[in-house]
Write a structure and sequence with these properties.
The longest helix has 35 residues. The chain is elongated and about 120 Å long. It has a seven-stranded mixed β-sheet with strand order 14-26-25-24-15-22-23, with helices on both faces. It is built from 25 helices and 26 strands. The two termini are 40 Å apart. Among the domains are: 76 residues, Alpha-Beta Plaits (2-Layer Sandwich); 88 residues, Calcium-transporting ATPase, cytoplasmic transduction domain A (Distorted Sandwich); 123 residues, HAD superfamily/HAD-like (Rossmann fold), CATH 3.40.50; 116 residues, Calcium-transporting ATPase, cytoplasmic domain N. By secondary structure, it is of the alpha+beta class. It is 49% helix and 19% strand.
Length: 732
């Protein structure tokens, strides 16, 4: 299975996006398609036997344009049509003045007086309307195309309304030219022109406000430089980022940004990685260390080998994840999508019924046509289509700015259901920077030699406790031994041979597995009381040493727990550590419930039990080590996975190791859901109010509407939804 993001052209409302999405999902070998109206993109999962050309063909069959595969590069700013629109402003004013000056008791243009010169009056309006029809050719093209493909949209409504008014007016123009000047009162050329102008104005406003919603995404794209410095023999050569190939040797001097993800092969320097990790302090990097594209080289000269280029780079992965997240559908959007799919056909039927009823009840064709066109124009589904995706995109942008990466938009909505938050201990509630606090050594080796043996084994392991031993030998500048027959014993420890001698290193569960009696119970209790994690070393079927390893609680852990409890969340610590050690740390940060001494596979079982009890569970872990647990719960939150984004099983990644981001995220999600509900309310409320007025139900109360005001009202409805969504940027 493959996945691609296609840029889509020709979408103007929710009818477009839902119609295209429905059409794509009908196709064989397309597993899932999600279309985003705001970003003008489609995320498609498809069978390997299909090609991009096949997908583009389906898009075109549905009545839209495929603009190619989404690229992470910053696109050149396209002309939004602002200049062209303002060129039509004086023309619109002129048409309105010619057609309405006599109604407003303003002086008329002498040779264009409606009563004295009906032919010149009507011909001038006709000629002035032609440029507007040419200006709106994209609306007519999309409207007709989507009507033919049975996916009618806003452009279809506008096209029918404008075309009907124009054809009707042209018929009357012919009658005037034949001498029937009474028809001069029945021209609607000014309605055609002003409807088109206001539609274009509304789209310009939408476009500019949509640009604001994607600011965070653009900032991400701009992080990586467009040029790289290639080492070509003894020469330096500047090349574009597209010319960089894997394994190329690149140079980064002080003040330059790293061009692609890579590994340092020469030199050392300090790097600013705040854009991705949130770490404000510079990070020192030396030979064999990895560098991330976009990080700033502060003070040294380095040469590095290109490893991840283009779409494989860390930044590209983040951009792709953000784009995919904003294109996924939040559950609340399903209501809007269902309504939108039936909305346009229903409005066309209502407009036709209105036209027929007016004629049946003896009203003039002019009145009937005015109401027909007004219903078509006022009932634009734009605001309905923008209600959810705009709010989601703004929220995603705010999360990115706060170094919170949300993988699916539905997570933003579902977070409101969270009542239980489960924390892993090591590397999550604590820093994971374990240090050896005390050594009880019964082996034949000196302490340094003893720890060196354990560190040699732990070098093969990925467990956080192993780092304490490696840090010890690094500080002491001790060389590691060669290790044979390394074996990881899940949730218990490790086994290996050093100098043809077998060693085990692990926790108390390892002793039980090996059927070894704990002869160091007193030492264990003493270390546990001091808040240490206990590591046993076994050889020749007996304990040859007990090491106390101590971790430091994160400084903001207590504040985070307090905030979550204030938000009425049930907070639990879930750890494989000893009960006493876990309780000491839990009590220091205010966690009441602790589940300790659990294996990784037991963690998933406990999470399932919580879910079965009816809890909506969020699990916070330290990334890949907690992958099964993060995948089991409703919402998984991973700490510090900046360079392993693609393989992380979490729904949310905290790019900055800051636990306070969790209550911040819950707050953002709560406000996002509120904004979405407000948007949907205003979108539905607008149509409930405007359609009856357009039909003419309130005419007895002297409340009516014409097509020009309908197009202006439609623009205002979309603007209301856009501005309401942008309130999320101001909420802190």
């Amino acid at each position: 299975m493959k996945k691609v993001i296609l840029k889509i052209g020709g979408m103007s409302c929710s009818g477009c996006s839902s119609g295209l999405e429905k059409y794509l999902n009908k196709q064989e070998k397309i597993y899932q398609a999600s279309v985003n109206l705001v970003l003008q993109q489609a995320v498609i999962e498809y069978d390997d036997s299909l090609t991009i050309k096949d997908l583009e063909k389906y898009v075109e069959e549905a009545g839209f344009d495929s603009l190619g595969v989404f690229q992470e590069k910053l696109e050149e700013k396209k002309d939004s049509g602002k200049k062209t629109l303002f060129m039509f402003l004086p023309l619109t004013i002129l048409i309105l003045y010619i057609s309405m000056s006599h109604m407003l008791y303003l002086p008329t243009i002498p040779f264009l007086d409606m009563k004295k010169y009906p032919i010149s009056y009507s011909v001038s309006l006709f000629l002035l309307t032609i440029p507007f029809l040419i200006y709106a050719k994209d609306i007519f093209k999309n409207g007709i195309k989507n009507f033919i493909h049975k996916t009618p949209n806003m452009d279809t409504l506008v096209s029918i309304g404008v075309a009907t008014s124009f054809i009707y007016s042209c018929f009357h123009l012919v009658m005037i030219l034949l001498g029937n000047t009474m028809y001069v009162e029945n021209l609607y050329f000014e309605s055609c022109s002003t409807i088109i102008f206001f539609i274009k104005l509304g789209r310009l406003i939408d476009h500019q406000n949509k640009e604001k919603t994607t600011e965070a995404l653009k900032e991400l794209v701009q992080i990586t430089p467009t040029k790289a410095l290639l080492k070509d023999g003894k020469q330096e050569k500047e090349i574009t980022i597209d010319e960089v190939k894997k394994n190329d040797i690149l140079i980064c001097k002080p003040g330059m940004k790293v061009a692609v993800d890579g590994v340092i092969i020469a030199g050392e320097s300090h790097f600013d990685e705040a854009f991705i990790t949130g770490e404000s302090l510079p990070v020192k990097k030396k030979k064999e260390d990895k560098v991330i594209a976009g990080s700033m080289n502060l003070d040294g000269y380095i040469e590095y080998r290109a490893e991840k280029i283009g779409k494989d780079s860390t930044i590209s992965e983040i951009v792709h994840l953000v784009v995919e997240a904003t294109s996924t559908k939040a559950p609340i959007q399903r209501l809007a999508d269902v309504v939108s799919s039936y909305f346009v056909p229903t409005i066309i039927m209502i407009a036709i019924i209105t036209l027929i009823c007016y004629l049946l009840f003896g009203n003039s064709m002019n009145e009937a046509l005015t109401s027909f066109v007004t219903v078509l124009v006022v009932a634009c589904p734009c605001s309905l289509g923008l209600a959810t995706p705009l709010a989601i995109i703004v929220s995603e942008g705010e999360c990115v700015k706060k170094k919170i990466l949300v993988k699916k938009s539905e997570t933003l909505e579902n977070s409101k259901k969270v009542d239980t938050i489960v924390f892993d201990k090591t590397g999550t509630l604590t820093y994971g920077n374990l240090k050896i606090a005390k050594i009880y050594n019964d082996s034949k080796y000196q302490d340094e030699e003893f720890i060196r043996l354990i560190a040699s084994m732990e070098h093969q392991s990925t467990h956080p406790i192993g780092k304490a031993f490696l840090r010890y030998v690094e500080e002491k500048k001790l060389a590691l031994e060669d290790v044979d027959s390394f074996q990881n014993i899940s949730g218990m420890g490790i086994k290996a041979n050093i100098n043809q001698k077998e060693f085990y290193v692990g926790n108390e569960k390892l002793l039980k597995k090996l059927n070894i009696k704990n002869t160091k119970q007193k030492e264990t209790e003493e270390l546990t009381k001091q808040g240490n994690s206990i590591v046993y070393c076994v050889s020749d079927k007996k304990i040859i040493g007990v090491i106390g390893v101590k971790d430091i609680v994160r400084e903001n852990a207590k504040v985070t727990v307090e905030k979550l409890i204030k938000m009425k969340k049930n907070v639990i610590m879930l750890t494989g550590d000893h009960e006493n050690t876990a309780n000491i740390i839990a009590s220091s940060i205010g966690i009441q419930k602790v589940i300790s001494n659990v294996l990784p596979q037991e963690k998933t079982k406990i999470l399932k039990e919580l879910i079965d009890q009816g809890h909506y569970v969020m699990m916070v872990g330290d990334g890949i080590n907690d992958a099964p647990s993060l995948a089991t719960c409703h919402i998984g939150v991973s700490m510090n996975s900046a360079t392993d984004i693609a393989i992380d099983s979490a729904d949310i990644i905290l790019m900055q190791d800051d636990l306070e981001k969790i209550p911040e995220f819950l707050d953002i999600s709560k406000k996002t859901l509120r904004i979405i509900k407000e948007n949907l309310f205003w979108a539905f409320f607008y149509n409930i109010c405007m359609i009856p007025i357009a039909i003419g139900f309130l005419k007895p109360l002297h409340i009516s509407m014409n097509p020009m005001f309908a197009s202006l009202a439609m623009t205002m409805s979309s603007l209301t939804v856009v501005l309401n969504s942008l309130r999320l940027k101001r909420k802190r």
